[in-house]
Predict the 3D structure of the following.
Amino acid sequence: MGAAMESELRPVDFEKIRRLIYEKCGINLHEGKKELVKARLGKRLREGNFRSFAHYYNYVVTEEGADELVRMIDSISTNLTYFFREDSHFQKLAAILPNLLAASGNKGTPRLRVWSAACSTGEEPYSIAIKIRETMEGRSDDVKILATDVSTSVLKTAESGIYNAEKMKNIPAGLVRKYFQSGVGKWEGHFRVKNSIRERVQFKRFNLMQPPPQGVKFDVIFCRNVMIYFDKQTQTAVVNGLCDSLAAGGYLFVGHSESLTGLNHRLKYIEPSVYRK
């Protein structure tokens, strides 16, 4: 009986879940995403012994279901990522870095603040840290990278800094040797980001629907391949929040399949997927 009920995602239940996801994290799940929702949340139903999607929804909207609501968002929001994804962005970062560091005003130890605003399992912020380290060529610097995501499960992977060999295939062998430790024994075939890179990155859960972090202005913000899940209204709100968090002259990188065209914002177009305040 339970299995039969779990297998059906009624239109009314999908609509309730869709609206809740939109309200909580801005992801716009159209009708074509119904099977994805059914597959990903079906697992949560089985693990939590929920009778149906209606039963599950009624639980996550209660105070008691707050933790399960986070797990639901985790299940829906998890996306593909890999090291140095959209490599032209990292080449651009290397190109603008000297001017950003020179403008920091700290002649002795150049200062840089970067925000990876949808960091997933951590490949993006670690790639940023490696690219900055390589560009600095061993010179001392004051670089801090804030890496945030709405999903607690991906942040656990990110904080561990451990990846299997498949995840490493886009990284030149020289960089792997320089910035990763090879696993032995049960960890053979895995690699861990070295402390010299990991210590530059701070991971936090953050929902882009919330007001942006206070007290710091970022020189560079990466917010890539997440706004494609938002409608125009939400995109506009998110972009303007990111703009508020940018220092004057700071850069925003969005995904190659994304554009700010049609949005009301205060950023200057530099080149495809790159904007400046």
User: Anything to note?
Assistant: DSSP finds eleven helices and ten strands in the chain. The beta strands are 111-116, 142-149, 162-164, 180-182, 190-193, 201-205, 218-222, 246-253, 268-271, 274-276. The chain has a mean pLDDT of 91.
